[in-house]
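[step 3/7] inverse_fold.run input=structure_tokens len=749
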């Protein structure tokens, strides 16, 4: 750790935590030390070994803290500045940064004056294109290789400096001061090394990729840290309340204006309800399709927190004088209720039809303002605190008795979730069928004796049942795969997501469709082995999608694939989803909500996929819902778990065809302009000169290497004229200018 006699850097923080007076540990420790620790953790094998490294880092921090604050044991300085950088995905005190990989790529290109067609610029902009190395798909690693010869060898910032910069970026993004955001990034770039930039990028993207889970970090920090975080969702509170490892948290308290992770419903079989409810009576509630939201009230101050503890008080109203909800409900609270915490669902309500609207439609409940007949409505189903009385440890039936004493229902603004008493499986089936008829999301079954346990799902006493959990209950859609997207992380060598399309009915009956409309993007429902099979099946048919010159048969709007496949070379997949929603992202004008791939339809040819006409009929008949029938009491095949994903990564590198895998040219320096601006493609090479070595030689000469020849390719090189090379010669002249074979051998001399 750094010595304590270094001078702290003063900066203003926008974080929620109270700034300690005087020097802090974070103001003394160089940011590069934290980055070095993260590098070691990333390279270490095994979770136990990684946790041991973190434990050692934490102990050194605490030793330094003890020495620094020996004369002030009551200091508020703690581990929070480091914790919020180690677990950026759990950060709640800072607002959004408004920065994505593409934004940073353009920033680096601009700052360093990189030509847009330069190799480094293309690396940054096309960081997801797979290469022979594992860094493919990881923008931070790609940026490191581009920046390592352009940044200072050693940075000069402390951990506090970096946090202050992130505070500034978040604040300026919130106030739409983009120039100041860029200035903060520039200052960081001038004062950090490439390795620090790599970890800064991961922190700002909130993807650390060190192989150390939040449970491991919190558990190592303090035995009660995870429990406290689950209740408060505040890293600041965890670090301040549990700063000493010897002090145990006797009672995790739910308090006003401190958000907590809500209690959740366990996914369950209808056949298991009676057993899980201990063969006693239970409650059935309507499962509304809204946003889970806590309402905290104290006097005329109101706060609203989402399931992940994001603060939306600014949207719904911090006082009776502002927001889309608070002004309409402030007078509904009983006079003797000074403070309370409610749990419920924030929904969109149509005042004309007097019905809730699916959140899958084209609106965001958090930014909704009263427009025509649509308004914000809060549907309450639980209460955790009334005045000074905490209710979380009391049974549900007792908590529900408090609700009528807290507020008076206002139709369309603040209501109680409908519930009924039940005791049998048949009553559960009846309630689920009613939900299907009303186009509702499903039902929730609750044990009347259940206490409120934050962040608890399994064994909570709450069961959620949706139509899609029942096998063969949902309509299935036969869609055609027309596009693909490269994955990230360990899937970076795979096409991991697929663009599916609908066929436009041909004008003459009996003809095959010639035009296809983009419809949805699917990336779940299959195992890793199935994904490998899909990649192998389509490997030789993928083509790069050119946004400037797209294939005429495939019509897209905002969502465009990275690769595409001709319809006759593709196959139909069976897809399930919860409903069909309006969307301008896809050419169909609608898309699927929560799509998942069920299986490949080997029994159907490509031209037998669903049509736009069939989709529109289905959408109108069921008002967008995809539930095909009622549940029967005898239905017991319930889909309760996701299929286990294969975890073996050893087979992944062979999944993407070699023509899409380029040599890693990160370290190659240009020494000649002989091939400047020329695009070359090497199909194969003699054993004496491996393909990747030749590709590096091309880069040295200023050329660009592609794995698939296209209209801009200068020449294609091959040592042997095999079938693949012959196919290139047969390509239309308009596409390839009429290639002629060039043997590699003369070039080697």
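[step 3/7] decode complete -> sequence:
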């Amino acid at each position: 750790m750094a010595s304590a006699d270094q001078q702290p850097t003063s900066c203003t923080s926008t974080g929620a935590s109270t700034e300690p007076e005087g020097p802090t540990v974070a103001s003394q420790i160089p940011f590069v030390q934290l980055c070095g620790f993260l590098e070691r953790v990333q390279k270490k094998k095994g979770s136990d070994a990684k946790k041991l490294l973190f434990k050692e880092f934490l102990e050194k921090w605490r030793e330094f803290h003890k020495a620094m604050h020996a004369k002030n044991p009551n200091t508020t300085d703690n581990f929070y500045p480091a914790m919020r950088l180690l677990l950026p995905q759990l950060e709640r005190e800072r607002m959004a940064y408004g920065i994505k990989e593409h934004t940073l790529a353009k920033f680096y290109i601009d700052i360093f004056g990189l030509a847009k067609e330069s190799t480094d610029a293309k690396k940054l902009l096309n960081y997801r294109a797979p290469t022979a190395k594992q860094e493919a798909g990881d923008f931070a690693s790609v940026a490191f290789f581009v920046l390592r010869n352009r940044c200072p060898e050693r940075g000069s910032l402390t951990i506090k400096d970096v946090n202050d910069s992130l505070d500034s970026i978040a604040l300026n993004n919130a106030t739409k001061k983009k120039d100041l955001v860029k200035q903060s990034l520039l200052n960081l770039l001038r004062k950090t090394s490439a390795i620090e930039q790599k970890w800064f990028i991961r922190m700002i993207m909130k993807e650390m990729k060190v192989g150390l889970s939040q449970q491991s970090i919190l558990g190592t920090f303090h035995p009660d840290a995870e429990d406290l975080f689950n209740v408060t969702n505040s890293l600041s509170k965890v670090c301040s309340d549990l700063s000493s490892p010897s002090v145990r948290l006797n009672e995790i308290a739910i308090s006003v204006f401190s958000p907590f992770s809500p209690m959740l419903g366990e996914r369950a079989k209808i056949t298991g309800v009676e057993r899980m409810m201990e063969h006693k009576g239970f409650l059935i509630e309507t499962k509304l399709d809204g946003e889970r939201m806590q309402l905290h009230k104290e006097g005329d101050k109101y706060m609203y927190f989402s399931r992940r503890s994001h603060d939306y008080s600014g949207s719904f109203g911090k006082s009776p004088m502002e927001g889309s909800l608070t002004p309409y409900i402030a007078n509904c609270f009983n006079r003797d209720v000074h403070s309370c915490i409610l749990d419920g669902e924030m929904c969109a309500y149509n005042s004309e039809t007097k019905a809730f609207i699916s959140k899958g439609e084209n609106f965001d409940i958090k930014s909704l303002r009263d427009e025509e007949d649509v308004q914000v409505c809060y549907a309450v189903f639980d209460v955790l605190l009334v005045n000074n009385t905490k209710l979380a440890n009391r049974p549900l039936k007792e908590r529900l008795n408090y609700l009528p004493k807290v507020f008076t229902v206002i139709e369309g603004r603040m209501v109680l979730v409908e519930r009924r008493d039940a005791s049998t499986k048949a009553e559960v089936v009846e309630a689920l069928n009613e939900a299907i008829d009303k186009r509702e999301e499903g039902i929730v079954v609750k044990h009347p004796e259940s206490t409120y346990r934050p962040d608890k799902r399994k064994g909570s006493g709450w069961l959620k049942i949706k139509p899609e959990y029942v096998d063969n209950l949902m309509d299935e859609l036969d869609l055609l795969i027309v596009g693909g997207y490269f994955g990230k992380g360990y899937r970076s060598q795979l096409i991991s997501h697929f663009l599916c399309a609908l066929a436009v009915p041909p004008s003459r009956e009996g003809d095959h469709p010639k035009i296809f409309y983009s419809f949805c993007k699917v990336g779940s429902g299959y195992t890793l082995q199935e994904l490998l099979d899909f990649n192998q099946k389509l490997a030789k048919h993928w083509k790069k999608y050119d946004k400037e010159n797209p294939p005429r048969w495939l019509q897209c709007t905002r969502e465009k694939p990275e690769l595409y496949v001709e319809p006759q070379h593709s196959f139909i997949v069976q897809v399930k989803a919860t409903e069909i929603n309006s969307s301008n992202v896809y050419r169909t004008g609608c898309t699927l909500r929560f799509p998942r791939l069920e299986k490949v339809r080997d029994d159907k040819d490509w031209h037998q996929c669903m049509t736009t006409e069939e989709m529109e009929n289905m959408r109108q008949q069921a008002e967008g819902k995809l539930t095909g029938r009622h549940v029967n009491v005898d239905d017991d095949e319930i889909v309760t778990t996701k299929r286990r994903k294969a975890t073996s990564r050893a087979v992944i590198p062979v999944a993407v065809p070699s023509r899409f895998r380029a040599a890693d040219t990160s370290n190659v320096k240009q020494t000649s302009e002989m091939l400047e601006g020329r695009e070359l493609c090497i199909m194969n090479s003699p054993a004496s000169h491996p393909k990747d070595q030749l590709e590096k030689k091309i880069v040295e000469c200023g050329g660009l290497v592609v794995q698939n020849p296209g209209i801009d390719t200068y020449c294609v090189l091959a040592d042997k004229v095999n079938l693949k090379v012959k196919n290139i010669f047969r390509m239309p002249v308009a596409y390839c200018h009429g290639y002629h074979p060039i043997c590699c051998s003369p070039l080697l001399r």
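[step 4/7] annotate
The two ends are 55 Å apart (CA to CA).
DSSP finds 23 helices and 26 strands in the chain.
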